[in-house]
Amino acid sequence: FFFVYVAMSTRSTMSTESTPLIAPSPTSAGIVSSFNAENLPPVVQEYIGVCQFYGIVTNSGVLTTLRFGLSELKVSGEFGDKDMLALADLFCKYWDTELAHITKVDFSAEACNLRSHGAVSLAQVIARNKNLTLVKVSGNKIGPYGGKALAQALEHTNVKRMYMRGCFIGEEGAKDFAQYALQSPDTALRVLDLSVNGVGFMGTEYIRMALQSRAVMKLPPISVDDTGNLVFVEVMNSVTHGVGFVLCILGTVFLGIKVSDRDWRHITACWVYSVTLCLLFVSSTLYHSFFALKVTRSVFHVLDLSAIYLLIAGTHTPFLCIALANKPIWSVWMMGFLWLCCVFGVAVEAMVVHQCKDAMALCLYLVMGWAALLPLRDLIAVLPWQAVVYLVLGGVVYTLGVPFFVRDRNLDHAVWHVFVLVAAALHWWDVYWYLVPFPCEKPPCV
Q1: CA gap 108, 402 in Å, rounded
Q2: Is the same domain home to 44 and 148?
Q3: Do 386 and 274 sit in the same domain of this protein?
Q4: Cα 284 from chain centroid (whole Å)
């Protein structure tokens, strides 16, 4: 029995070994055996070798661009200074041969973490590569040192668009860009984004003077976005109109209580005025509060400018609809014209993008505001002289603030906000004490 058992076991083992459980796929086996690193383009092989030399992992975005000859190199995943160094070695060697197809580079991915020395490596790429036209490094905290390296590289370059939002180059970095890139006659730069870089007022002044110098030399213009750099200024802008919004809420409550026992015309006119007043101050406060958020700021910017039209028309409403209710030429036709101008202005702010839009808007503000002079004779005939004085004085205060609004340097806009706050307070006082009780036999002397 023992010999029979051994013989059967040996036969079973031989049968199992001679019949594999899973037969190998000839197709997959062929691919594995025929594919090796020698089949890759030389530039890909060299990139892998450089990464091994520096002890870093290859970047999938770079590999894809090199392997398939894409025109835009967009890194993916983590990408730091050593990764930039390896890529710079490759660019400096092959920029006019194997890498001539790359015209755009994007290092603005969320996980990208370039610092000052990474910017120095990138500067070498920009300075030597004559094919690059677009460079994005937004969100990388390269600092003033890295900013200077990039500014010097842009002095003689073919790069037309450079995006550096939130790179924290500071005042010194702005000074370097003004000195090297913005005044250079040899640069091809046409668009430069330096927003939210903490350059401060002096940094923006360096940029402004460099652009003026460029215009004097009759060099091609460069569009520079330097918004979001005046932190203290934006805080003051937010605070001034934030205080105004709080006062508007209180004013709306008091005005609503005072007008609650009047007729529908008084109530409607006062509520329209109160809503437009609150809308102006809250939209302005939010616009200046979100100065570092590009999309959010642009939305509130439209609301901020549109609210000016609304407030002008809303301020006229109580005077025309209450004091001149029995004169349709003012209470109907002029009121309708003002609100049509308001709708037109809001539509322009929301849909039109033109360099002349700001000048047109300012003219429309002044025309709508001083339209109060047209019915002035009739207002004098029905209102106490104090009411007319407050009305005109408010318009004068608004107008006195316009030069600060136009110049808009350093704290000028905050000063403009103070003028708006004072003028709005004068008009609110007028509505509260003279229009809500109108008509009355004995007007208050306030």
Answers
A1: 39
A2: yes
A3: yes
A4: 15
Q: Is 288 annotated as a binding residue?
A: yes
Is residue 255 located within the same domain as residue 315? yes
Tell me the one-letter amino acid at 13.
T
Helix (H) or strand (E) run with residue 230 in it: none
User: The sheet that has 134-136: what strands, in order across it?
Assistant: 72-74, 104-106, 134-136, 161-163, 191-193, 223-225
Sign of CA dihedral 130, 187, 206, 192: negative
CA-based nearest residue to 224, from 301, 295, 165: 165
The per-residue pLDDT for 207 is 97
First to last CA, the chain: 128
Query: Which position has the token pair 């004490």?
Result: 433
Together in a domain, 211 and 269:
no
Q: Name 421's Cβ contacts closer than 8 Å, sequence gap at least 6.
A: 240, 241, 243, 244, 247
The tokens describing 126, both together, are 């920009």
Which pTM was predicted?
A: 0.79
**Nearest C-alpha neighbor of 319 from the set 190, 174, 195, 427:** 427
The answer to whether the beta carbons of residues 300 and 287 sit under 8 Å apart is yes
Segment 282-323, tens digit of pLDDT: 999 999 999 888 889 999 999 999 999 999 999 999 999 999
* pLDDT tens-place string over residues 165-200: 999 999 999 999 999 999 999 999 999 999 999 999
Please name the residues in contact with 319: beta carbons below 8 A apart, sequence gap of 6 or more: 372, 375, 379, 391, 435
Residues 259 and 266 sit within 8 Å (Cβ to Cβ):
yes
- CA 361 to chain centroid: 21
Quick check: 214 and 261 in contact, CB under 8 A?
A: no
What is the largest distance, in Å, between two alpha-carbon atoms of the chain? 134
* Count of structural domains within the chain: 2
Q: Is the pLDDT of residue 91 over 50?
A: yes
Question: 164, 150 in Cβ contact below 8 A?
Answer: yes
Element housing 72 (H / E): strand 72-74
Q: Name the residue range of residue 350's domain.
A: 231-435
Amino acid at position 387, single letter: A
